Request: fold
Amino acid sequence: MNEIILDARNLVTEIHQRRGWLRVVDDVSFNVGRGEIVGLVGESGCGKSMTAFSLMQLFPTPAARVASGQIIFENRDLLKLAPNELRRVRGAQIAMIFQDPATFLDPLMTLGDQIAEPLRAHNFAGDVRARTRDLVEQMGLPDPDLIARRYPHQVSGGQKQRALIASAMSCAPKLLIADEPTTALDVTVQAQILDLMRDLRAQTGAAILLITHDLGVIAEMCDRVYVMYAGKIVEANTTRELFRAPRHPYTQGLLRSTVSLESATTELFAIPGTVPNLNELPRGCRFAPRCPIANAQCAHEPPFVADETRAVACWNVERAMASEIWKLDVGR
Ligand SMILES: Nc1ncnc2c1ncn2[C@@H]1O[C@H](COP(=O)(O)OP(=O)(O)O)[C@@H](O)[C@H]1O
Ligand code: SF4
Ligand SMILES: [Mg+2]
Reply:
């Protein structure tokens, strides 16, 4: 693998609640190589967004904090930076885009001004207008001058997301964190935005941490993937290997519930049950209440993760890989 630019180690993030601190990201380790597209996938509520916010140390709630761990970005621990140093990294070297562009665009500012905002904030040395025009063009938006003068309500959802990506890319970040960037868009626009992100990686060499609940998006985009469940990484691998031979029962279930256009099956599979409440986590494996091959050990001992890049946190990997365990559930 190429040089690692982001290395999150043993990250723990908590949210303060009435009953005390709740661990929403629990001892999570992952890394991203230079120019690599790495996926973070899991059902809703697994802690993917909180992981992303932790990297930026910008949370949607003041009750959240990174409690421990390291976030090594280009050989510096972001958790040890002074606030002004961190501000210089955010938006310039690491940028982030989100599911719903509308909430992150100011309705009273033109798209051009919003695209240029990071340039101004980080004292861009060149011609801001020319750079903005180039960005708009690079995003595949028609008529750059006209689009730059438009307000968010005057453009489509896909164009809003392109503008947000332009703004994120304006300072040529080395890492783009994209949290469900296409979830709110219809299928055709989704594919176009994914294409755009792939092109940007090729043109700029920016690495992308792509967060999604959709394994289809992972298959399209990612070099490697981390699977997250209830605040923990349960499996990591190259995308090719993960799809060829998923080892964790959760990954196997997610794959089975991913609708494939080629498959002839009409029956839609869903993993039974729901992500556990973080206040009432099972003592052993967090997936045990939903796992078709859970045994007594699973109920009592949390499975151990040996290494980070090809990890799997399961006591019964051989059993999981030997039989099609989710077939056992058909008709249940
Ligand atoms: N603003 C918030 N206030 C309180 N709890 C939150 C907030 N955002 C997320 N959480 C909690 O953190 C956990 C992880 O959520 P999140 O990271 O948003 O999951 P995902 O992005 O995988 O859907 C969930 O249990 C959720 O309830
Ligand atoms: S450790 Fe046990 S319960 Fe957890 S995924 Fe593996 S087999 Fe299932
Ligand atoms: Mg999320």
